[in-house]
Amino acid sequence: MKKIITTTNAPAPIGPYNQAVLSGNTLYTSGQIAINPTTNKLVLDDIKSETKQVMENLKAVLEAADMTFENVIKTSIFISDMHNFSLINDVYATYFDEDFAPARETVEVANLPKFVNVEISMIAVK
């Protein structure tokens, strides 16, 4: 059985999907981009601020499912420019204990929704 997870503390979906789906004890988040849920505006000042907003959006979705970053077992990071990898990684690393960090892939792509620079999705387990 699946349960739809939603929160007003993360941006509303911009298409026919949900912020996350809980199936049993496993949470699948949709990709988050740097939309500030309060202003509904993109945070594109620099790649670190953009990544921080993405991670805060994911944090809100995890919290809506009664989870934290400690529950995350896998992340997928999509970036528009691999030259930003280390800056994105600097911010991403502040959300995880390095000894228990999740599995991950980082992929450079041609474009992302709203032409942002980074999108991240997660899988978490209770």
Fold blueprint:
Blueprint: E1 2-5, E2 20-23, E3 26-29, H1 47-64, E4 72-79, H2 85-93, E5 103-108, E6 118-125
The biggest sheet, with number of strands, parallel, antiparallel or mixed sense and barrel status, is: 6 strands, mixed
Number of domains: 1
Cα end-to-end separation? 15 Å
CATH top-level class: Alpha Beta
Oligomer: single chain
Could you say which structural class the secondary elements and strand pairing correspond to?
alpha+beta
What's the β-strand tally?
6
What order do the strands of the largest sheet run in, or round the barrel if closed?
A: 1-2-3-6-4-5
Return the CATH architecture.
2-Layer Sandwich
Beta-strand percentage?
Answer: 25-35%
**Net shape:** globular
GO molecular function: hydrolase activity
Keywords: Hydrolase
Organism: Mesoflavibacter profundi
Pfam family, one: Ribonuc_L-PSP
Note down, in words, how this protein is organized.
The protein is of the alpha+beta class and 126 residues long. It has a single domain (2-125), classed as RutC-like (60s Ribosomal Protein L30, Chain: A), CATH 3.30.1330.40. The chain has helices at residues 47-64, 85-93, and strands at residues 2-5, 20-23, 26-29, 72-79, 103-108, 118-125. A six-stranded mixed sheet has the order 1-2-3-6-4-5, with helices on one face. A hairpin with a 2-residue loop joins strand 2 and strand 3 (26-29). Helix 1 packs across helix 2. The longest helix has 18 residues, at 47-64. The two termini are 15 Å apart. The model has no long low-confidence stretch (mean pLDDT 97).
